[in-house]
Amino acid sequence: MRFTKLSFFILVTLIMTDNLSAYESLDQYKHLLPQPGIVSEQVRFWENIFTKFPSTTTLVHDSDNPKNIVDIIDHKVLVKGNKSINLSYKHRLRLNDRYLKRYNLALKRFQRLGKKALQFGGIERRIYSVFSRKKSDLAKLYKGEISLRTQTGLSDELKVAAERAQDYLPYIERTFRSHKVPTIISRLAFVESMFNINARSKVGASGIWQFMPKTAQMYMNVNHLVDERNSPFKSSKGAAKLLADNYKSLQSWPLAITAYNHGRGGISRAVRQTGSSSIDQIINNYRSSTFGFASKNFYAEFLAVAKVYNNLITKKIVDRRISSLRLTPIILHGRYSLYHLLKFTPLTKEIVQKYNPEFQDFAYRKGIRRLLPKNYELFVPTKMAQKVLLGLGKINIDGNKYAYENTRTRSILRD
User: Fold this and answer.
1) Strand ordering across the sheet containing 376-381
2) The whole model's pTM is what?
3) Contact 216, 181 (CB under 8 A)
């Protein structure tokens, strides 16, 4: 059955222009997101990373006690007057590695020689000046129990990411709210990817929520045709569901957030091993080869970025603006291929790729007519939505033309 009144099928096609991301202060969530002892110290470290140090600066610090900073490498200063040095990301990484190797050599000297290691130079003296402040730290230094790492500053990148986030946060906040996840936890995407929709990690994580394939498959489509980890909208639904599941299992938002990094099973083991559900007790006492700096600091890093982002918005350093995206999701209740969409609608490959980045290269190959999952959600520019629906009406699969009444569209930013 075909209908001639297209407006009947388009429930909402216009983006609501009054939608902005919410003002969210950590003070509103003190009861849900506590900051006990060690967490408060970690938060202060990460606040400095997000506010004081740009990406051209690297800190060398104690892995277990980040406030013990032994060096600050300013790559801009190093570049001055030295044409052999540049500020490229790869060059900075190589230089950071060279610094860290030299510091690790110094740590071995202290373990072998004790205070006599000071004879070797400035690096040793720098380390000694930091760890001799407390007898317990000095003892660890001589026992070889100090581990150093590097941390790049993020103040400039956060400002760029905060601007980029305005296009997605209203949708993500509403999605989290619908899954009973505190909306401030949407700021976790800054920790994961800085809202970079093209983010890919060396270990295989992808998208703004940095899902690994195995975890993602529990919450979205990940196959040879589509990888919904790369859709900022669909992966956000997955993140909300995962966080809600973590909370249902662990009954603690600090643990649910930490489990996003370390895994629900890993945090459940931490609770059993320590006999505590307190995040600070777990950070201090849980022992696991996989529970390293990133996992121990994940919750604190989130708290810090949530606070700093809120300051950027309230102080108008970054404008809180309406999303620039004008998209309408069309639910394809039938089974259709990307080939059909490109042939019978005004959609082009470029438009589909821009607003539906989850489609794999394989899906665009000539002759590939594999069907998309049933009830597939396709995002199209709102101004094209009616024409896309008209084109869908021309599609004939197995003798059945696409029925308009099987299509539903709605605004992605409407409350």
Assistant:
1) 376-381, 327-332, 407-409
2) 0.89
3) no
Buried b / exposed e over 70-106, threshold 16 CB at 10 Å, is: bbebebeebeeeeeeeeeeeeebeebbeebbeebeeb
List the end-to-end C-alpha distance of the chain, in Å, as a whole number: 32
**DSSP structural state of residue 187:** G
> Amino acid letter at 137?
D
- Whether the pLDDT of residue 204 is over 80: the answer is yes
Output phi, psi for 62, to 5 deg: -70, 130
Compute φ and ψ for 49, nearest 5 degrees.
-60, -40
- Residue 76 in tokens: 């801009």
pLDDT band for position 201 (cuts 50, 70, 90): very high
Q: In whole angstroms, what is the distance from residue 237 CA to residue 304 CA?
A: 24
Cα–Cα distance for residue pair 266/7, rounded to 1 Å: 51
What integer pLDDT is reported at residue 2 of this predicted model?
39
Specify whether the CB–CB gap between 39 and 299 falls below 8 A: yes
Reading phi first (left if > 0) and then psi (alpha if -120 to 50, else beta), residue 218 is in alpha
- DSSP H helices, 275-318, are 279-285, 293-314
Q: How far apart are CA 313 and CA 315, in angstroms?
A: 5
Of the candidates 16, 60, 313, the residue with the CA atom closest to the CA atom of residue 163? 313
Dmax (CA) for the chain in angstroms is 89
Contact 238, 276 (CB under 8 A): no
Instruction: Report H helices in 220-361.
Output: 232-250, 253-262, 264-274, 279-285, 293-314, 338-344, 349-355
CB 91 within 8 A of CB 152: no
In our burial notation (b when 16+ CB lie closer than 10 A, e otherwise), range 306-337 reads: bbbbbebbeeeebeeebbebbbbbbebebebb
According to the model, what pLDDT value does residue 81 have?
66
Please choose, from the candidates 32, 92, 26, the residue with its C-alpha nearest in 3D space to the C-alpha of residue 255: 32
Residue 17 has pLDDT above 50, yes or no: no
